[in-house]
Amino acid sequence: MPSAPALPPPSAPPRRPALSRRSALKAGAAALGVVTVAAAAGCAGTGDRDGADEPDPLLSALTAARRDAAAAGAAIALAPERTAALGVIAAERTAHGDALAAEIARAAGGVPSSTSASAVTTTAPAAPPPTVDELRAMLGESQRGAATLARRLDGHRAGLLGSISAAIAAEQAVMLL
After folding, report:
1. Which of 61, 67, 162, 168 could form a disulfide with 143 if both were Cys (CB 3.0 to 4.6 A apart)?
2. What single DSSP character describes residue 70?
3. Does the pLDDT of residue 42 top 60, yes or no?
4. 35 SS3 class
């Protein structure tokens, strides 16, 4: 009868996994509970605006988006080696402004148009183009403003501002190194 090859003696006791199945299931259930509560809180908007005569809180973010887009476009004159990055920032901030204008119009019960966006902008004397460092500071201010406003609002508006805040942070960290 052939004998089976002998196995070497174990050198160490078997290792337990760092996370047991039971612990993983508990963590997954807890995460699902947090997501469910957060989603329910985000969907529990106030419905009617109590302060209908107050200006829309998104107007400040819209003004900042338009300002940042113009500043990024103007900064190309001082930093032509960064034309591609500054062009992307200008385009993204323009898209942010368009999304904010559409949300403001939606909340007001209207349709977004160029008149709603032009009503927000003001004509200021032509300023010299900002340096890349000045643009970085402007974007930092806009990012913090959007993040702060996102924490004050709820639902779709909070998500929109959170997304804009994250995009601005990426612009600062990646594009303006």
Report:
1. 168
2. H
3. no
4. helix
